[in-house]
Structures are given as C-alpha cells and as structure tokens.
Amino acid sequence: MRSAALAALVVALALTATLATAAQAASTRQLCARTAVLRDSPKGFVIARLNRPQGLRLQRHSADRRWALVVVIRAGTVGWLPARSLCRA
C-alpha cells in the first residue's frame, strides 16, 4: 500500500515538472523587430534597448494586447515592449 502511494506521488511530480517545462517553453519568444525599446510601463520610461535576436519570456499582454510584459532571459530585466516587436509563436 505504501509503495503504491509513493509510486503515485512520483508519477504526479514527474507530470507536474513536465507541464511546467512545457508552459515555460510556450512563453519563450524572440525579438523579431531589428530593435525595440523596453519600458517600465506601457508608454513609460525607457529602461533598455534590445536588439534582434533577443530571447524573451512573455509574461502577459496589456488589456488592449498592444503591449507585452516580458523578461529578458539573459539579463533578467522585466519591462514592457510593443507586442508587434515579438515573433509570433
């Protein structure tokens, strides 16, 4: 009984890790525009300038879907850029 419960727990943990990895991979994007400006908020202050190809992790879109909240993978910088600057998934 105890080994069956342990086996079920191991399987559940493996599935959870697989789903988390798949979700993370699905949100990884690249910058398609030649250059883009990363801002602290939509239409806010410039915090970085990015060049293609830059790896980004998409967090979410603004309500009007014109802006994307991203994390620059190498630097860890978080900011907003125009959604049209991202490659389509």
Structure, described:
The structure is a single chain. By secondary structure, the chain is α+β, with helices and mostly antiparallel strands. The chain has a single domain (2-85), classed as SH3 Domains (SH3 type barrels, Roll). 28% of the residues lie in helices and 36% in strands. It contains one helix and six strands; from the N terminus they run H-E-E-E-E-E-E. It has one helix at 2-26, and strands spanning 28-30, 35-39, 46-51, 55-61, 67-72, 78-82. Mean pLDDT is 81; it is low at 15-26.
Number of strands: 6
- SSE sequence, one letter per element: HEEEEEE
Let me know the average pLDDT: 81
The CATH superfamily name is: SH3 Domains
- The CATH topology comes to SH3 type barrels
CATH architect. name: Roll
Helix content: 25-40%
Tally of separate helices: 1
What gyration radius follows from the Cα positions, in whole Å? 18 Å
Shape: globular
Keywords:
89 residues; alpha+beta; SH3 type barrels; four-stranded antiparallel beta sheet; two-stranded antiparallel ribbon; globular
Element layout with pairings:
Elements: H1 2-26, E1 28-30, E2 35-39, E3 46-51, E4 55-61, E5 67-72, E6 78-82
Antiparallel strand pairs: 1-4, 2-3, 4-5, 5-6
Explain briefly what this protein structure is.
The protein has 89 residues and is α+β, with helices and mostly antiparallel strands. It has one helix at 2-26, and strands at 28-30, 35-39, 46-51, 55-61, 67-72, 78-82.
